[in-house]
Automatic annotation (TrEMBL):
<dbReference type="InterPro" id="IPR001647">
    <property type="entry name" value="HTH_TetR"/>
</dbReference>
<dbReference type="InterPro" id="IPR050109">
    <property type="entry name" value="HTH-type_TetR-like_transc_reg"/>
</dbReference>
<dbReference type="InterPro" id="IPR009057">
    <property type="entry name" value="Homeodomain-like_sf"/>
</dbReference>
<dbReference type="GO" id="GO:0000976">
    <property type="term" value="F:transcription cis-regulatory region binding"/>
</dbReference>
<protein>
    <submittedName>
        <fullName>Unannotated protein</fullName>
    </submittedName>
</protein>
<dbReference type="GO" id="GO:0003700">
    <property type="term" value="F:DNA-binding transcription factor activity"/>
</dbReference>
<keyword id="KW-0804">Transcription</keyword>
<keyword id="KW-0238">DNA-binding</keyword>
<feature type="domain" description="HTH tetR-type">
    <location>
        <begin position="10"/>
        <end position="70"/>
    </location>
</feature>
<dbReference type="Pfam" id="PF00440">
    <property type="entry name" value="TetR_N"/>
</dbReference>
<keyword id="KW-0805">Transcription regulation</keyword>
Length: 211
């Protein structure tokens, strides 16, 4: 049975982690200082040091939370896709979930997948990315019977899109705006073109070797 002190401590830690993620969304890693997090969470610097050790410990805990959330949401998206018998609709569901995830977790993805600034954070980021790659590629191979290179290429399309969404606002990428719904629809088509047998007229033949 939890004591009131344990409950208050967990609530304080949750507020500090939520404040950290909000600051990452607003200003990136440089916005996350002990003082800024404590102020936003309505707690003290001492409480933060007591709970997380230092700023690095806080970032590790925040990384664990946001990547764990992304992983759980990804698993849920695949569980929903598994109930859809139509391949095109199943991939469309996954593409929509991916684009939505890229938007909602942009700050955390930028800080903990793209702009990692320590070996500990980088190691956790790489392990997470590899788990996500395995989830995506295994599903694609099982659903479409596609060869490993095709599944891996499709995963890299998703990863590249997630990275670019984390780094750049849409208006920095192109002068023509693209709504999330349209992006998800085209992403689904691109993935299907890579993994579905017979898409785009079959495999491409290599071009001539330059002289």
């Amino acid at each position: 049975m939890r004591t009131p002190l344990q409950t208050r401590s967990e609530s304080s830690a949750d507020r500090m982690l939520a404040a950290t993620l909000a600051l990452l969304d607003e200003g990136g890693p440089t916005a996350v200082t002990v003082a800024a997090v404590a102020r936003a969470a309505g707690t003290s610097n001492g409480s933060l040091y007591h709970r997380f050790g230092d700023r690095h410990g806080l970032l590790l805990a925040a990384q664990s939370r946001v990547l764990g959330t992304i992983e759980a949401e990804t698993a849920q998206a695949f569980a929903v896709a598994d109930t859809e018998p139509d391949d095109e609709r199943a991939v469309a569901l996954l593409a929509t979930a991916a684009v939505d995830l890229f938007v909602r977790h942009r700050g955390g993805m930028r800080a903990f997948l793209v702009e990692v600034d320590s070996p500990d954070l980088e190691a956790a980021s790489t392990a997470f990315t590899h788990r996500l790659a395995a989830t995506v590629t295994q599903w694609l191979r099982g659903r479409f019977g596609c060869p490993t290179p095709d599944a891996e290429a499709a995963w890299r399309l998703l990863f590249a899109l997630g990275t670019s969404r984390a780094l750049f606002d849409d208006e920095a990428v192109s002068p023509v705006p693209l709504a999330p719904e349209a992006l998800a629809g085209s992403l689904a088509k691109a993935v299907l073109a890579v993994v579905r047998p017979g898409s785009a007229g079959g495999p491409l033949r290599p071009g001539p070797t330059p002289a």
